[in-house]
Structures are given as structure tokens and as C-alpha cells.
Amino acid sequence: MARVALMVPLAHLDRDFDYLVDTTQSVHAQPGVRVRVRFAGRLVDGFVLERAQASEHPGKLGFLEQVVSAERVLTPELARLAREVATRYAGTRADVLRLAVPGRHARAEAEPVAAGSLVAPPGDCSGWGHYPHAAGYLEALGAGRGPRAVWQALPGADWPGRLAEAAAVTAAAGRTAVLVVPDQRDVDRVYSACLPLVGTGAVVALSAGLGPAERYRRWLAALRGTARVVVGPRAAVFAPVAELGLVALWDDGDDNHAEPRAPYPHAREVALLRAHAAGAAVLLGGYARTAEAQALVEAGWAHDLVAARTVVRERAPRTTALADIDNQLARDPAARAARLPAIAFAAARAALTAGTPVLVQVPRRGYVPALGCARCREPVRCRRCHGPLALPAPVAPDSAGAPVCRWCGVLDAAFRCSACGSRGLRARVVGAQRTAEELGRAFTGVPVRTSGAADVLATVAGTPALIVSTPGAEPVADGGYGAALLLDGWALLGRADLRAAEETLRRWMAAAGLVRAAGDGGQVVVVAESELATVQALVRWDPVGHAAAELASRAEVGFPPAVHLAALDAAPDALEGLLEVAELPPGTEVLGPVDSADAPRGAQGWERMLLRVPRRDGRALARALTAAQGVRSARKEPGATRVQIDPHRIG
DNA sequence: GCAATGAGCGTC
DNA sequence: ACGCTCATTGCT
Predict the structure, then answer these.
(1) How many CB atoms lie within 10 A of CB A206?
(2) How far apart, in whole angstroms, are the C-alpha atoms of residue A403 and residue A414?
(3) What is the pTM for the complete model shown?
(4) Which of A170, A187, A440, A584 is the residue whose CA sits 20 to 30 A from A404?
């Protein structure tokens, strides 16, 4: 008899099912293998969870249809983790397993196992020397214990190197490490940093872009124990390594760590669940710190790994905040045209003269994604749908080349301001491409390069150049940038999102962290009100203070991690049906409904409701929503619903 | 009164 | 997408 986890999407069938095993299958039908079984007539995929003598099931059992392969891909640890993640996020185990276990590739599976290798401890971990408690942390890692820490990297730090060292110490102690990073560029950086420390073969990079065969090959290397260190984006948190010693996650505030598919788990939360169950160490690193990470420190669950203030001051670039750009524009006509304040212009010029590149961070891609009236500065809106108008092509905004609505796509050649009747347009937010053009005119003879969306640069040389980048796409400069100009800060800070302040500081620090220290001439100019707490946190390089304030304010307004929240999105009748059968914890606050901004493609008229409970009722809320979805699914009630627990973004 | 047929449902 | 139940139908 085999107990099987079935890959069926129905919420009320999210449990184990027993099957008989015939004698020819019995050898291979071991826990963890993929199987096909007949379930209500149809053939479905599943995984053997365990073998047992007898079944509790009173009815009669069917036989396994097929043992797909003898590879035991679902380890007991991951089977348990999948259930825990499903419970935490009010989702199904099958959905989690789909995220955790890649599709099989028979050829890759048939290839012989490469020989494993032992990893020696790294000779030099002095890079960690600036963080007072790091020595104790690494020692605990090397001793096979499970220390937990939240680490704020110094500006300009070689953080991939630090992660590699932590991984190497773990691997040398005979355990494995999983390093989770936001994107492919970071995978490459961390992988390269690991190579010399743990050796080829002992480290693998898991990435989506590899193609199914190579991806599965590397995943198998982790499963079979060849790879002792696994680097990858969010799905790597499920890497099937045994003897897990360390889960590290870089920049947990990055959106990429939030899984966009049901049940929408966040890699940080999965990492915490997994490490807790495995007794493994946790390392949450970043330049900035999230409220969630701060909560772990304040609860005493994780240690603080931060450098002394004197070292921070020594390493940070000199940072200046400028508010009203219009009053501080440079005298230089070219700089005026590029909308550069005198101080920013001077900082850039100084860095270029010193032979170093300059990073220019602009929060929007594209050309002129938001337009205003040239006379009264009122934002201009589409006459048909009130969407924002934008200039898609490189024409000067004052020449009034036809703007296009970003929502409905209608071209409005005869634009006229609804407030004052003027026909003139001006840029309200300037995109990366246009900024690049303007900077090129302001600094003649200096090469201008852009990095963003489709075309992300990984690195740039340490020679004079202007690098215009959207947040998250900033290339690493050889030797560090001489200066960074953080433009249009108000656009980042002014967003309605509750994470706006945290996210703004995160993006600013990600850029400023690539700049040389003040002592080496490094300068950062941020265009934003200097009195704002977030701007202050950047100027003083104080991510911890900012996170503490952010956490306190989340407690005040009632948002995670201070409370637990569930976002329900569905058509109105489905939403009503779900809430009708849900036995919510007493005192659950029910907010909404409002129009859903989070409906799947093609879905019309979806609404959103928010359910809010104190932290202690988080599990009860998830359980209630799981049960409610089960009831709806069993009754075959129509209408899709989306349930997200503690969504990364709200609003 | 009872076989033959079909829709609905659970799902090992 | 199968096999079970249960209802309906139609024939003796």
C-alpha cells in the first residue's frame, strides 16, 4: 500500500489517498517517487509519501497505474514543507508542489551521477570583520548550529562574497546551503563568488532561463547530494538539498521574492518555515531592511548583524538631499535642460573628472510616461477613459507630438488641458530614455548608457560614463561609482502603496550602495525633501532605524507584519459565497469590498475584500479560509477566487 | 413489478 | 473520464 499526494487542483481533495502497489512496482514505489494513478476515472500525477501495511480507508483501493521513475524527487522534508506552506497561505499542497518540484526530464535523470566533493572552509572571512557579531555567527554555522540573523550590508560591500563565505563555512561543516536572490544577475554574481570557495560541482545555480533539461540536471545535483550549495531565485528556497545548514536570502524587500502564482508564498516566509523545521541557520541580508525582518529582530528570533556607526560613516558616500528642483537648477544651460540641480551637476562632473562612472537612477522607464499641462501643471488625462497620457516616441514634449493614453491606447492629437484650456504639454515624470538624451547634451563627449527592463547591464567599467538605470537594474561598476544621482524621488515616495517608504529607501540604498565611500570621493544626490524620514535614513545610512519606524507605523495602521491580513479577490457573488461559508476567527475585521486591482487577465468586475486579524489569529484565519474554499470546491460553486495571505503589496 | 437507460456525483 | 447510485421511463 502507498500513501499518495495527488496533483489535483480541488481544495476539498487536498489530502492523502491510499493505493495498492502490485508486486512488479513495489521495488520502485518508494517514498518521494512520481506516480500516475487513476482517480475518479482520470489519470492524475502524484507523489508517493510513504509505504504502509494497511489503509484506514474503508472503501476499496485501486492500484498505482504507473511508477513514473524511481527517482525520489519529493524528499520527506519538502513534503512536510509543502504542507506547511499550503497551511500558512490557505492554499493547496498541490499548488506548492508545482512550485517546488520541476517537471521531469527523463534524459537528464538517466545521466550518471557526478562525483561529489568535499568543501574546505574558506581561508579568509575577514570581509565579515566589520560586523561585530558576525564572527560568532560564522562560528555557530561552522559548528553545525542554526544561528539566525538579519544582516545590513555596508555600502559598497561585496555582499555576494559574504554570502559565499557563509555558504562555504556551512558546507565545510558537512551541511548544505541555499542562497536565494532576487534575480538572474544576482544569481550569476553569487554563483561566481561561490565557485572559488566551494568548487565547481559543489555549487549549482538554479535558474528558469536554463531550459528544462539543464534546469532539471542541476536540480538533481542538489537532490543527489553532489551540490552542497544552491544559488537561485525564489523557487530555490525549495531546493531539494539534504542536511540543510543555512538558508540565506538577499534583499527580502524585492518584489521578485513574492511568488505570483497560488498560493502566493513569499520566499522569506518559506525560508523561515524551512529553516525552523530543519534546525538550519537563517541569514536575511540587504542594504536596507524590511519591517518583516525588523520584526524578527525585535521578537528576539534573529540577531542583528550590522556594522558599527563609525564604519558605516566611513564606508557610506557623502549624501545630499535636494528638495524643489525648480529653485535649484544649475546655471549651466545644458544642465538646466537636463533638469539637474547645480549640486547634482557638480557631483556628476566631479566624478567624471576623477575618472569614475556616474549612476543616474530614474524611477520610470520609457520616454515621458506622465504628462502635465505646460501652463497650470495639472496632470493631463485621456478624454475618453481618464487614463494618463504619455509620449511614446522621442519628440520634445513642448512640441506637442501626439500623446497616447496608457490605458486605452487612444491617440489624442487635439489635446487641450481640462483645467485651463492650454494646448501645451510638459513632462511630469521623465523616463530613463529621455533622461539619457538630456544628460548626453549636458555632458558632451561622455558616453551615456541605459540599463532597464528589457536590457539590463550586469556590470560597467570603472571609466567616465553616465549610466541611466531604472531601480533594480543598476549595473555594478568596477571600483564603484564616483557619484549617484537619484532623480524624481517624490515619484517613488508619493505612491499610494503602503510599502512606498520602505521600497523607496530600498531602491535608493541599492543604488547608493554601489557608490564609493565619501573618503574616495563618492557622492550621492537625492532629489527629495530632506526633512522626510526616508530621506534622512538614506543621508544617515540608517536602514535599521527606518525599519523600526516602519514596523511601528505598520502596527499603528494595522498592516503586516504587525497583524495578519488576507486579501480576497473574486467576482462579487463568489466573494460573497466564500465569506458566507467561512468561519472566521471572532473579531476578524472585514474591509471592503472595493474594485479589485488584482483580477486575472480577462476577469471583469472583480472586487477585493481584506480580512484583518491580530498576529495570534493568523493560523486560524488561514485555516478558516482553507476550509471555506474546500466547502465551495466540494459544492462545485462557480466562480474563481483568489486568496492571498499577507500579500507583499496592498493597494 | 421490474429491467433498461441516463444524469449526477464522488473521487482511495 | 470511470463506475457507482438513484431516478425515470417503458414494457410486461
Answers:
(1) 26
(2) 9
(3) 0.90
(4) A440
Query: In the numeric block, which cell numbers belong to residue A434?
Result: 529621455
Provide, in whole angstroms, the distance separating residue A41's CA from nucleotide B3's C1'.
27
CA-CA distance, A328 to A574, in Å (whole number)?
54
Note whether A544 and A289 are within 8 A (CB). Answer: yes
3-state secondary structure of A586: coil
Query: For the segment A533-566, what is each residue's pLDDT rounded down to a tens digit?
Result: 999 999 999 999 999 999 999 999 899 999 999 9
Whole-number Å distance, CA A102 to C1' C12? 62
CA A572 to CA A606: how far, in whole Å? 7
A208 CA from C2 C1′ (Å): 38
User: The cell 501626439 sits on which residue?
Assistant: A402
Q: How many residues does chain A have?
A: 651
Bond into A263 cis (ω within 30): yes
Report the C-alpha gap between A118 and A315 in whole angstroms. Answer: 36
The tally of CA atoms less than 13 A away on the side-chain side of residue A401 is: 11
Residue A399's pLDDT is: 41
Report which DSSP code applies to A401.
P
A19 touches strand B (CB under 7 A): yes
Residues in CB range of A541: below 8 A, 6 or more apart: A155, A312, A313, A316, A319, A509, A512
Amino acid at A138: L
